[in-house]
Amino acid sequence: MSDDIDLTTMYAMHDALRRELARLDRITIGTDRDPRHLPTTAGWTLFKRALHAHHTAEDEALWPALRRRLARRPQDLALLEAMEAEHAAIDPLIEAIDAALADPEVDQLRLGVLTDALTTGLAGHLEHEEDAAVPLIRRALTAEQQGHFGRVHAQLIGLDAPLLLPWLLDGADEPTAQKLLAPLPASVRAAYTAEWAPAYADLDRWSPGTAATH
Known about the structure:
Helix content: over 70%
Order of helices and strands: HHHHHHHH
Number of helices: 8
Number of strands: 0
Largest sheet: none
Shape: globular
CATH topology: Four Helix Bundle (Hemerythrin (Met), subunit A)
């Protein structure tokens, strides 16, 4: 395995997505919250934005680079196809949840079934990626290709960084936070410390009426 490939961002993103899936699951199966308020929450918006950025970066910059490196290895190519198929299965579930949330007649059971499918599908994909694709990434990806993937990932986060960066680091340990913040320009690190992190800390992201504005 290559010591040049740093997957800290990938693992931090996976941990953050799992954290939000657990919260989403509690909201949709609980009796004390009306899940129809989800569209007005920052939590649902940030979850979708982060997931879209992460999967788009993989689809555009990670899997194609690996496919070129593994052109003569059909078993490994089959794994990449499985990763892409798992990505493709997630988007319809999110669209179905959004459609259900927009329906004033939808009941909580229907939402529970959909969010359970999302939780099961996405959690299964993240585990599959870590168990099978990460070792392949470490063996086959070059440091240059990994750097390109990181840049594409950062570009896709783009203007959402003031919310998505503290969202990503919510609950991360200190070494992870330091590793992700260290490469950023000094001005961005200063903004994170003085503005972004405090604003995020004050955000009750799963309460109605907190929809993300960045």
